[in-house]
Amino acid sequence: MGRKPCCEKIGLKRGPWTIEEDHRLMNFILNNGIHCWRVVPKLAGLLRCGKSCRLRWINYLRPDLKRGGFTDAEEDTIMELHSQLGNRWSKIASHFPGRTDNEIKNHWNTKIKKKMKHLGLNQAAHEPINSITNQTESKQITNPNMSSTIKEKEETKDQPKDDVIIETTKPLIVSNNDEEIQTENCKTLYAEEVDIGSLFTMQDNEISISSSSFSSLYSNISRSESSSYLAGDSISLEQWDLDMTDPLVPWDLFTNLDDTLFLYDKM
DNA sequence: AATCTCTCCAACCGCGATGCG
DNA sequence: TCGCATCGCGGTTGGAGAGAT
């Protein structure tokens, strides 16, 4: 028996996400949280499958995402972790708050691999290529012998997986260069690339919205997506919500779904 | 200026793991 | 315990942009 597709493919949109789709998804999740990805696109009024929404949220829209290139120190840590964990990107990513497995995987495949090749290191065992003979180093990848420290972390299985759930009780871990990153985030808003995820920051255990960035974004969107506003207009968040959210699915509709949908109290 | 090649990364796909009735 | 639905992970692809010719 063939496996059923994860969702109804017919009529679903694929490919790059539009600003409006990002906004709908972000809006929905910030207001309602995540319980079942399958119903998220339906309730958010998106013609996407849940899987696609999940990926978009995790890799791009999550408010706690760290942006910008990897530092040398981060690269070193990735190499170290990779030597112990192999291609277990989600495990490696868990050591980098704000980084996604996809981001690390991409960085590995495009940069670090080359760097190691250039240095004459074996990508799997991270040893000089010449020293690799009949070692079954591939076992290291498929069944890596983890170091004790990492293994300990691995085995704390009681810890909830929080990949896709907005943490409202845990303070966001802030790195030394977060300020730099935030500045960079703002810069992207003034450029043509609109970065919705960067509008939101975790502060005092809450997600807060940067008003300056927000209005900048709105200016950008108003030029490209919405005909109702002109760049420079200032609007309230409520107004944004009213204007930019598809009225097909009124939020009131969701208030009855608290029991099944909401993971946490509304912020 | 036009074309080709390369690089990067967002997004997709398939499958194993997990949850639940 | 079983089977189905859904989630999450890792591998892969494809397109946009940059750089080279």
UniProtKB/TrEMBL annotation:
Segments forming domain HTH myb-type: 9-61, 62-116
Source organism, top-level taxon: Eukaryota
Pfam families, per the entry: Myb_DNA-binding
GO annotation, cellular component aspect: nucleus
Domain Myb-like residues, every copy: 9-61, 62-112
Subcellular location as annotated: Nucleus
SUPFAM superfamilies noted in UniProt: Homeodomain-like (SSF46689)
Keywords linked to the UniProt accession: DNA-binding, Nucleus, Repeat
Gene3D superfamilies (alphabetical): Homeodomain-like
GO molecular function term, any single one: DNA binding
InterPro entries per the UniProt record, alphabetical: Homeodomain-like_sf, Myb_dom, Myb_TF_plants, SANT/Myb
Keyword Acyltransferase (UniProt): no
Protein name per its UniProtKB record: Uncharacterized protein
Provenance organism: Brassica carinata (Ethiopian mustard)
